[in-house]
Write a structure and sequence with these properties.
Helix content: 40-55%
Structural class: alpha+beta
Strand order of the largest sheet: 3-2-1-4-5
Amino acid sequence: MSHSRLNRGHFSPSRLSVVRGRLVLAAAVLVLLAVATFFFVGRQSIEEYDEDHRITFDCVISNAKASTVSTHSGRGVGSYTEQVDLHTSNCGHLVIRDGVTSENSAAVASTFERGKRYRITLGEASLSLRAPLSVLGAVPEVRGWERG
């Protein structure tokens, strides 16, 4: 078999490596664009949808504690957000951010009694997308609660 016939219509191993490398690079760029789009557009859309579409559940509190979340990058750019982490036996991990400050976070957390049932309101989109969003570290945010 001649050399020209071998190369006609077939890729050499080095050419295949270049093509494979470009495909991997293109896939990585698409994933990064999808994540960036979520953070800039999707997150806002979810919050807006959640404002008008709420669901209420009866949740049993396992633990409630005040915490601070940092969004600082390796370069030190970012901010801190105060929140109350709620761990429940039947509704999973939830957070309260709305109205929580460094001055009142411990007091808000102390309003929840371990083992007691609370009617907790969540946004429908946050709840529906809980599994895929958890990969990004997102936790459903409580929109309201009352002792049940």
